[in-house]
Design goal:
It is built from 21 helices and 14 strands. With 599 residues, it is of the alpha/beta class. It has four domains: 135 residues, MutS, DNA mismatch repair protein, Chain A, domain 3 (Orthogonal Bundle), CATH 1.10.1420; 103 residues, MutS, DNA mismatch repair protein, Chain A, domain 3, CATH 1.10.1420.10; 202 residues, 3-Layer(aba) Sandwich (Rossmann fold), CATH 3.40.50; 59 residues, no CATH class. The strands form three sheets. A six-stranded mixed sheet has the order 10-11-12-8-13-14, sandwiched between helices. Strands 1-2-4-3 form a four-stranded antiparallel sheet, covered by helices on one side. Strands 5-9-6-7 form a four-stranded mixed sheet, covered by helices on one side. Helix 5 crosses helix 7. About 2% of the residues have low confidence.
């Protein structure tokens, strides 16, 4: 079923009835644990790769062993049919997809079974020797008689060794080794018995599985048997070709069998994965347009050892949240959130249960994703160019019935170019395509689209900020909650993530200082940007309080009566009076003291 599963994932269903049929089959095996386990372990586990076997027959590469392998499947099919017939709760679908076809295939392979039973020596197949029956040819019959005689000699030598070493046959085993031919094996503990009988027993090899050894008589009989076996193989080769040629005519039937067994294998795997997940999956409900997922999870991440996955709800409606913008901290879970929605939609449309407490989804005509970052050096395509090519393909392909997932578009170029592209692409999707779209971004200005278009909804990944340092240092810790909430998060906390990655403190301090300089530059008036004060060690709260204190000081000084008529002495005296008045306030604000010291 591996190949069929890959095909289903590449070509998910678009027809509601077909999806519901698969889901009903999965639901039956999900609920009937006994039937699921019996069919998987007792029947499907022993099935060979029919597609590969069929190809070998068609290309003339098949062997007698392949023919016997198909025969073993044929004699096992009735038991599989009985197990499926016992599934009464969904008998109509079981009959439609599996039972009727398997019964027909069993009937069609009846002559194949007769062919093998007539021509192949099945008693030898148990010891992995694949030969035609000796009575098929006089020459074969004569060679087989000699092989039987040598086999009796080998068995007799085994019995003599058991008696000589005082070991039961289950402790001293007769085996056919790929290198040594027929030889004897004992455990490493019993191997000590051989040391005193070196004249009769010759050790061949010592492995974890035991000690392999032989005797002169056994070695001679083994060589003779191997020579006769090779001769038998040569004599039967032309007859084997005829048998395989007849067997190859059943290749179309084997391909039909492969189709049925692969389908059953995938459905059972869906049921097994759904039932054995950390939290069992649920059957999705296919709706007309909106997406409602309760406690949605990522199926790959939640099964990782030591992972306690945080589930999130998803709500996407055509009028209120058709286009969802997700902001929030780096490492907060934005990418996981949008990807898991795409995975859940794909799982639903291939007929599998989904990792949610409940799920309602429409049928999407395609799922289009622009995630990750990577270049194609051999093709001369940069990271940003690859991003643009993928996005262009999305814009050309998407319809109003598509699901589009975009993760941090525009990060491979300048901030202004990236934001401009992100805005234009988002607006085009909202106004022209009108499909469901999840857009994770660090361009916080993009969230203004919500105030322009009713179908845009802002959401963010939550984080908790706790102060751990002094008021002067403003040290804060970031705790990522991995929960999705409504609204906007206007900070990315990239420096906090760098701290979590154990960046050197000097680099972190410099990064914080540069961020504050850029923020001050963007919000300051032209004349204010001339100030060049090292404020890295002061928090914004300390500096804001200090600024208000300086404003009060200057306001009171400029409102001094007759200030313009005062001479320098009186002005100096007035400044000293105000300094004395605000002395305690200045002493309690380190930033004001720092500013005064730099004057």
């Amino acid at each position: 079923g591996k190949r069929l599963l890959a095909q289903w994932l590449k070509q998910p269903l678009l027809n509601v009835d077909d999806i519901e049929e698969r889901l009903t089959l999965v639901e039956f095996f999900f609920n009937d644990t006994e039937s699921r386990d019996i069919i998987r372990t007792a029947h499907l586990r022993s099935m060979p790769d029919f597609k590969r076997l069929s190809n070998r027959f068609q290309r003339g590469f098949a062997t007698l062993q392949d023919t016997v392998r198909v025969y073993q499947v044929i004699i096992a099919l009735p038991a599989l049919c009985d197990a499926l017939a016992a599934c009464t709760d969904s008998q109509a679908l079981i009959n439609k997809h599996y039972l009727q076809e398997l019964l027909k295939i069993t009937e069609d392979l009846g002559e194949f079974r007769s062919l093998v039973e007539t021509t192949v020596d099945l008693s030898m197949a148990d010891s992995h020797e694949f030969m035609l029956r000796a009575d098929f040819d006089d020459g074969l019959q004569e060679t087989m008689a000699k092989m039987d005689a040598e086999m009796r000699n080998i068995t007799a030598e085994h019995e003599r060794a058991c008696e000589d070493l005082d070991l039961e046959s289950k402790r001293l085993k007769l085996e056919k080794h790929s290198t040594f031919g027929h030889c004897l094996r004992v455990s490493r503990t019993d191997g000590a018995r051989l040391r005193g009988k070196n004249t009769r027993y010759f050790e061949l090899s010592t492995l974890k599985t035991g000690v392999f050894f032989t005797t002169p008589a056994l070695r001679e009989s083994s060589r003779s048997y191997r020579t006769l076996s090779d001769s038998y193989t040569r004599e039967q080769s032309s007859l084997v070709k005829e048998v395989i040629k007849v067997a190859a005519s059943y290749s179309p039937v084997l391909e039909r069998l492969n189709t049925v067994v692969a389908h059953l294998d995938v459905i059972l795997s869906f049921a097994e994965a759904s039932a054995m997940a950390p939290v069992p999956y649920t059957r999705p409900v296919l709706t007309s347009g909106d997406v409602h997922l309760v406690a949605a999870r990522h199926p790959c991440l939640e099964v990782q050892e030591g992972v306690n996955f945080i589930a999130n709800d998803v709500e996407m409606t055509r009028d209120g949240s058709n286009f969802v913008i997700i902001t929030g901290p780096n490492m907060g879970g934005k990418s996981t959130y949008i990807r898991q929605i795409g995975v859940i939609a794909l799982m639903a449309q291939v007929g599998c249960f989904v990792p949610c407490d409940s799920a309602q989804l429409p049928i999407f005509d395609c799922i289009l994703a622009r995630v990750g970052a990577g270049d194609a050096q051999l093709k001369g395509v940069s990271t940003f160019m690859a991003e643009m090519l993928e996005t262009a393909s999305i814009l050309k392909t998407a319809t109003d019935k598509s699901l589009v997932i975009i993760d941090e578009l525009g990060r491979g170029t300048s901030t202004y170019d990236g934001f401009g592209l992100a805005w234009a692409i988002s607006e085009h999707i909202v106004k022209e395509i009108k499909c469901k779209c999840l857009f994770a971004t660090h361009f916080h200005e993009l969230t203004e689209l919500e105030s322009i278009y009713p179908s845009v909804d802002n959401r963010h990944v939550m984080a908790r900020i706790t102060s751990t340092g002094t008021a002067a240092t403003g040290q804060r810790d970031l705790t990522l909650l991995y929960k999705i909430g409504s609204g906007v998060c206007d900070q990315s906390f990239g420096i906090h993530v760098a701290e979590l990655a154990n960046f050197p403190e000097s680099i972190v301090r410099l990064a914080k200082r540069k961020v504050e300089e850029l923020e001050d530059f963007g919000s300051a008036k032209p004349q204010e940007t001339k100030m060049d004060v090292d404020n890295a060690e002061f928090s914004k709260e300390i500096m804001a309080n200090g600024s208000r204190l300086i404003e009060r000081f200057l306001s009171e000084f400029t409102n001094t009566p007759e200030l313009a008529e005062m001479d320098a002495g009186r002005v100096s005296k007035r400044v000293k009076e105000l300094k004395d008045k605000y002395e305690s306030d200045i002493a309690s604000n380190a930033w004001v003291q720092h500013v005064i010291a730099t004057l």
